[in-house]
Each structure stands twice: as structure tokens, then as C-alpha cells.
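2024-03-11 09:14:02 INFO receiving multi-entity request
2024-03-11 09:14:02 INFO entity count = two
2024-03-11 09:14:03 INFO echoing inputs for audit
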Amino acid sequence: MALKQISSNKCFGGLQKVFEHDSVELNCKMKFAIYLPPKAETGKCPALYWLSGLTCTEQNFISKSGYHQAASEHGLVVIAPDTSPRGCNIKGEDESWDFGTGAGFYVDATEHPWKTNYRMYSYVTEELPQLINANFPVDPQRMSIFGHSMGGHGALICALKNPGKYKSVSAFAPICNPVICPWGKKAFNGYLGADQSKWKAYDATHLVKSFPGSQLDILIDQGKDDQFLSDGQLLPDNFIAACTEKKIPVVFRLQEASIRKS
Amino acid sequence: MTSEPRGAARGPSQRDLEEEVDELVHLYGLEDDDELGDEFVNENMPRIEVSEYPAYVVPGREPAVGQRDWRLSGEAAEAEDLSFGGWGSEGQCQDLREAYRYTHGRASEEYECYVIPEEEDEEEAPDVFCVTCKTPIRALEKVLDEHKEHEVTPLSKALESAKDEIHRNMYRLEKQIIEMENFASHLEEVFITVEENFGRQEQNFESHYNEILETLAQKYEEKIQALVEKKKEKLEALYGQLVSCGENLDTCKELMETVEEICHEEKVDFIKDAVAMADRLRKFLETKTDVEISAQPALEDQTLDFSDVEQLLGSINTIPAPSAPVINPQAPNSATGSSVRVCWSLYSDDTVESYQLSYRPVRDGSPGTDHAESTVTVKETYCSVANLVPNTQYEFRVTAQNRAGLSPASECAVYMTAPSPPVIKSKEVRSCEEAALICWESGNLNPVDSYTVELIQAETPGASGVTESVVGIPTCESLVQLQPRQSYTIYVRALNVGGPSARSEPATVHTTGSYFRLNEQTCHPWLTISEDGLTAVRSERKTPTREPPPSSTRFTRCVAVMGNLIPVRGHHYWEVEVDERSDYTVGVAFEDVPKQEDLGANCLSWCMRHTWASPRHKYEFLHNKTTPDIRITVAPKKIGILLDYENSKLSFFNVDISQHLYTFSCQLHQFVHPCFSLEKPGCLKIHNGISVPKHVTFY
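2024-03-11 09:21:47 INFO inference complete, emitting structure
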């Protein structure tokens, strides 16, 4: 698959690049950002996948988070894909900010007209890692995933649905229980149809209940004053209760400030 | 040892041998090597040149003879030790002997061996060696009856073993040379000593005889003088007598003349004078004339008193009593805990038969320490005095003794025994990957000068490591630098002017992880610490007791205890086994953390607190009474704690699932200690000596 470099910038001794490629899963051109630390010049590095939240592109993380110094110091390759397929000309894709464009919810849609393009789950767990492994100095055995909000949800479900694939998973203010919260209900209804039993396959809280192993290291940070927390969109308590029940190790930190920044 | 060359008794004639020798000399370019070549020819013997000895010249002996003797002794050794006799026939034996020549290099370690094939049978050279017959044979010969059943080895191997044997014997010869040389120099010394002794005796005799002669002369003078006096006396007495005799005679004569005159006088005058004269005569004759000789002519026999001369003569053979010896000051490091080695020297000309060494402990003024003096008699000028008390000063005096008597005592020298070894407080040893803090008890009642710590790194089992020493330690503790992930055996010695003590009992330190024990002195009264200092137990209390009074060392409010961590920066890691259902607090605190407050309630402590409120586990990470809001879904059973001074961090982990729980950023301007408390009855067990696990190193 041909990779077209869109941009390349030196940053903390490494390189922040953006590539574009033709995605098979998503049937469109997709961009992703990748940071190559100085260590990548001489050897393979672990890969860290960042999933952004609602309305984001591949740019938000690389321009706002300031992660480069840490990635450089620790020798991590950080990959930040886009949050949904773009320019697919699907009717209604730009109607809301929390559904369609910029709101892929990291699922493989089964409903028409979304199912052709909106396969973000497979893209993130299959196509993108294969592409990265083939073209960049990453160690395929050392992969981790993290994300914010919707991306947090995406990170949690990717890890829970693929035991052993990721070394660790962290989430900032993730949507923990989408089948219950308004965002989730809207998205799943649209992408997966009305049958709620199909939704559970993409719900972290439900997935935990049937998670086979406990070899997972989950870290969740949540801002205490996050409005979406109080709006009941995020529901971390449900997730924590399920993890406690199943003895899945999670450290959940309730931070004083809101983390929401996009 | 005869001087007849033994070679003459052997097979080939001298002439043949000489020719062959010359041939060999030419063959191996030894013409210039005169020593070897000439000796070879001159000696007229086939022999092995074992080595070039320096020509040893014994004073007063003929060098050639000496050398010859060496040579022959070498040859004798050769004949006996090199067991060439067993190597087949005489003729072959000899040829082979010539064949092996060793040249002796300068370093006397290099040997070159030339193996020459026998000249007669060049086409059919022997190539194997018959061990049974001890002779080289051709391979074909093996098939023959003679050697059929015999064991055979390749010639090269046989040569090798022969070479080895020769080497060994050469070594023994060299050793003998050294022994002889030593003996010779010893003899030289004895020579010199005899000369010295003679000189001394000569002087002695001379002075004695002079003394005797003087005494005799003196006596003679005295006696003669006495005789002369006596003679004078006698003569004077006799002279006196003579004079009085003369006077008497004169008076007699005078009277006679008077009487004659009277006789010629007239009758009347005659009668007058005659009567007077008769009176005078009568008177005169009545006075006795002493006709005894007052002085005897004979002079008495003088008794000659030679007793003192006899005594002098007798004392020629006796030597004077010695002078006081000179006692040496104590040589450093010559004492042990129970003995000292006292040395002295004699006054140079004295003859001494034995010395008496007296000693007693130095009085330190306290009552009841007036010890009796002990004495020991020795013949040498040194003595190791044993059965002494360690770390104590003793006064020593020595007197020399010979037949003539005792010398005055020497000056008094003070010697000190070495101290007793210290006792390492094994239970209080603390360590980390880079250092260990050892403390010990002095082991001596009185002060010592300093201590030495000895470290031996255990490398491989059975191999002894290098001993590293830290000297001049003034107090009973020492922080020593060590290499990580090693085992060390540590000893301590005490030192005083007498020397070092014996080694203490060892303590072992493993520089894997950090080792510490709970400090009993900080322990709240309701906590019990185990014997090994690693478990803290709070038991159920039947009756509530009052809180203990405030203390600066002991926790009074919080049922807590601190560990004694080694005061070294860097990384420290330890693990605590906890009961999921108990309420506990684990973390670190400064030494002066207020003991009447809870852990984490001030800015001098950082800790993780678990509270079990069924069914929930509550976790807090406390510093200065504040904690972040943290929820942990899997309750840890074993908590790993990483203290990182460099990065000012304190991290907590769930050891079993390698999960990071929380990290404090803490300003550690001083050293901190691990701290533990139990808010409810329960038990905490500490695990030490663990290397920082890999997953922890990321934090």
C-alpha cells in the first residue's frame, strides 16, 4: 500500500510525520500522524496508538498534547489515526458532531449506508498496525493503545476484545458504558442497528464482564469537573464496578481539573 | 668421590668418542661455545651438559678441585637419577647420551633438544620405542620374536617422556646447587665469627695478664720495702748498742786511769779517793751492762702472700659480668591479643649465657592492680610472651646473665598487646546495592586506636577473593562502598599500638536490593516486632489501654514502626505483604516525623493507606493530610515500594500483577526511612533484598 508523506517536522530530536494512504477497510483516503523518536533510527521501538475523541482529526493530538518530549525520551513511536473515514459522501455524515464524520466510535458498522466505510474497529486493530509494522521501525510484539473520550472508549474496547494484543491501555475521560449513555445509544443505533445485543460487543463495561484473562493494565484518568461526567456520558463507575467484580486491574484517578480540552 | 673419569670404563674408546664429540661440536656450531665444547673434550667423557654453574670458589680451596667436585657430583646424580642404565645396551646407551644435548639458556629455563638419528642406520632409523626392553627399535623389529609380545610406543612419545625425566632431574640438580651455595655462605659467616671470637679472647687474656704482672710487681716492691725497713731498724738498734758500749768503755777506761792515778797518790789522799772511787766503782759495776744483742741478725722469713695473684690467675678464664642489655621499643604489628614479642640486644663485647625478662602490667593507679612481676629466662635476644591480657600495656625489663653474674637491668620498655576482636552487630547491618552500613561493639573495655573493616567479595565458589580494607575508622560503625549484585564477607579488626586484633566473626552482605530491619525503638507499644525484624503484628486487645506518653523516638498515637534504611541515596526497593482485609499504611517518613501524629498527616511522611470497609477497598495516598482520589479494582496482596532519591519519587506497585498504583513526587532533602502502621489488628511482613523489578524501573 503506497504511503504518501504529507508533512514531516523535527521535534525533540525525532520526526513528526503525517501520511496519507488508501484504506481498504474504509474505502477512502485516510491520513494518520506518526512520531518517530531518535531511537527509531537505530532500532525497533514499541508502538503506541492514540485514538482521538469526537470531532478530532489526526492533527489534534500532535498539536495540542505536547507528548513529543516524553515519546522522544522513552523511545516510543506514537501513531494517531483519524477518528472516522473522510470524504465518503454519505448522506447525513456531517449532520451532527457526535455521529458520522469525526465520530466513528471505533466500530465496524453493520447498517447501511455506513457499513461500506465506517469500519474504524478493523482499521485500528488490523489494517493500520499491519501498515505501520511493514513500513516503520516498530516492534510488533510491543503495542499499546490509549485515547481520549470516544478514543478512550475505542482504546478500552480494542484492548478488551483482543486479549494479549496490547501491553497496556489507558484512557482519558473515556466513554465507559456507551450502551447506556446518550452518545453511545445514538452512535450504536446508527452504526449497528436497533438490536442492543449487538451493541454490547463494543461496550467496555460489558466486555469486561466476559473478559477471559486478567493480564491487562488499565489506567483511567478522569477530571472531576468534567461536564460530560456529570452529564452521564462517561459513566466510569460502572466500568470500575465491573472490573472490581472481575478482578481486572484498573487504577482510576479522579483528577481535580477537567481534562477536556478539545 | 674419585677423580677417575668413569667414561674410561665404557664401551667405545676414548679416541672414537673424541671424534664423535668433535663432529657434534661442528654439527651444532658449538665451536665458539668454548665452555661447552672444551669441557666436553677436556673431561673426555660422554656426558649431559646439565647447566653452566658459576665457578664457585670456596676461600682457601683450590678452585679446580672445587669445580671438579661439582662436576662429579653432577655426574653421580646423572648416573643414579637419570636411570640411563636401563636403556638397553651400553653402546646404544652411549650414543643416545651423546645424541641428547641441552644447551642452557641465560634464564636457565630454555632448553633446546636436538635429536640426532643414529649415524649407522640412516635408511632404517628406529621409529618406535619398545617400552619393555627400553630400547628404540625399527617398526619391522616389532614383528620379530624378540619384541613380539612387547609393548610399543611411538618414538616421539618415548622421546618426550625421556625429555621430561631429564628436565625433572635437572631441576633437582639446580636445587642442590642452591643449597650448597647457601651452605657455603653460611660457612663464611662462621669463619668471620671465629675470627671475632678469637679477637675478643685475645684482648681479654692480654688485659688479665697485664693485671697480674702489675700486681706481682707491686707486691715485690712492697715486700722489699718492708725488708729494708726492718734492716734499718736492726742496724739502728745495733748501732745504738755499739754507741752505748763505747761509752761504757770510755767510762771504764777513765775509771781505770783514775784508779791508777789514785794508786800513785800519797797514803792520805789515796785513802780518801779510794773510798770514793770504790764507791764509784761499786756503783758503776752495779749498773748492769747489757751485753745482750738487741737486734737479731737474722731477718725473719717473709710470708709471701700470693693469694690475690692466685685469684687473678684464676679469673683469667672467667669473663666479666655483662652490661645491661638494650631493650628495643615495640615493633609495630608484632603483638597479638595475648602475646607480645619483646626484643633486645646485648652490649657488643659481652658474653651472655641467658637473659631474664621480667614484666608486669602497667599500673593504672586503680586499687588492687598491683600485679606481681613475672620472669622468664631465655637464651635468645627475643621472647614471645604469651598469656597476656588484650589491649593492655606491660612494662618489660631484661637482665643478662653469665657465669660471672647478672648484669644490671635494662631500661624499662612498655609493650602493648593487641586488642580483642570486635563483635559485629549482624542484626543491625543495613545495605543497598552500592553500600553497606556496618556497626559493631568494640570488644575491649579500654579504648582502642582505630578499627579496620575488611571486605572480601565472593566471586566463584572456592576461589578466594581480594581483601579490601578500610582503615583508620574512629567509631564503631562504617559505611562501605560495594559493587551491586555481589556477596561480601565482612570482618572488623580493632587496632592499637601493639597491632591489629584477630578478625571478628564475619558478617555477610548481599548487595542485591536493599536490606533493613524494623527499628524497635520507634515501635508503638501495641506493635510487636518479630525476631528477624521483618514482621510487625498488632494483636487484638482485650482491654483498651491508655495511649502512651509522648516521645520523640517512639510512635505514640499511630500504631506504627519505622525501618532503619541505609543512609545512601539512589534507589531502594522493598515489598510488603499485607492482608487484604486489614487496615494498614505503608510508606516513608523522615527520622524526625512527629511521632504523635498519623503517618501521612504531615509533610514529613508519604504513604499509601488501605481501609477495608466491606465490601469496598479504599485506597489513599497521603501526604500532608491530602490524597488524590484513586480507585483500585484489584486489592494488592503484596505492595512494592520504590524510593528514588535521584528523581525525588516514591512509587507503589501491586507486585503480583506488576501494576503501578501511584507515584509521589517528594522533595527528599534528608534521608527517609520506611514506615508502617496497622490501624486495626493485623500483620505486615517485609521482604528485603529484592532487585528493582524491570517493570518498576520505568517509573
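2024-03-11 09:21:48 INFO post-check: The CA atoms of residues 83 and 102 of chain A lie 5 Å apart.
2024-03-11 09:21:48 INFO post-check: Chain A has one domain: 4-255.
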